[in-house]
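hi! just following up on the protien thing from before. the input was this:
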Amino acid sequence: MTREDVFQKMKDILIEEFQLDKDDITPQAKLYHDLELDSIDAVDLLVKMKEYIPGKIDPEMFKKVVTVQDVVDILYPLVQKN
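and the predicted 3d structure came back as:
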């Protein structure tokens, strides 16, 4: 799975589960400000992404996440372990 694939999976989840507009979901979009997600939404997003990620996800890795690209950058190496 490429970085673009990870981004697309996240985008699909954000559209389907959070009813966000596809045009608002860009790599530079800020999760809390631009997409208006809260911490519960962020956890839900990770739970949905878990399907594509083997093993456990350390929540500490996500404490400094601001943008969609930040999440992709953290998840991509985890997806490669699959």
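The first helix runs from residue 3 to 18.
The domain at 3-80 is CATH 1.10.1200.10 (Non-ribosomal Peptide Synthetase Peptidyl Carrier Protein; Chain A).
cheers
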